Structure of N-acetyltransferase domain-containing protein:
Amino acid sequence: MQIQKLKQTKVNEVFAHFKNVKGDFLLNNLDNDSFVIGISADKNEKILGLVLAEYKELNRMGIIYSVNVRENSQNTNMEEKLLKFAEKELKAKGAKVLYTNIFPETSPNMKFTLRKQSWMPPALDKTHFIISVKDMNQEKWIETSTFPEGFSIKSLNQIHETELEPLRNANWYPKHLSPLEDFQFGETSPQTSFWVYFKGEIVGWILSKNINNEYLVVTSLFIKEDCRSHYILRPLLGEVIKNQLQLHIPYTHFDVRNQDNKVLKFFKRFFRRYIYQTIEIHSSYKILRP
């Protein structure tokens, strides 16, 4: 069985058979050269399996969002073929490393296939929070928290392009949280995205996407290490929540890496009454040989 690229005429079939598939935003633009979308089909062209991946030029990484196989085909080696297809395509685009998330619902077959293809053993990476902000206007800290002396914020569109130049080659933030990253899904929300300044210099940011006015996805939140404290996080998130409430967006989605213990404790403390769901996410990676 050969893996083939998805045709536009088959997109609706994918949505019909693979509910809540990770990386589904790729299906909105099949012609994007950084996307890798492969399907397996039977002789009647019925789709049996799907892989969705993306090449990130910024750090030459291939991200495999999901490998899905229909239930009656899960005892085959279809996951293995789909994963090999994605690896070959991503490597051809320039990827030096592959990365994927392992969710609670990820099939045992997929986990076995990752081991078989020499991926690193999955490790607990981050916790995904879904927060219901509808009732958070009663929290006093949202209105009363102020930034420490020397700190200030600007909304996403308030700065000049020249202010971003020092960030392009800076080494004080991880590449996967780069504020220069181009996230393909949703519309950037300038009302809930801010730059953090200390004495006139950018030292952090929170960037978010508005998805269908139903939920806000925080795509990047980072504060320079020597500037971190809950005295900054609290007023920063307060500004985001105030504006989110005005936009009538009921839910916020964000990930916190488990190695960031202080940040993890902060979210569990200040949002504990509003956490709608938490999901522990493991991750795995594979270094590609030249």
Summary: The chain has a mean pLDDT of 88.
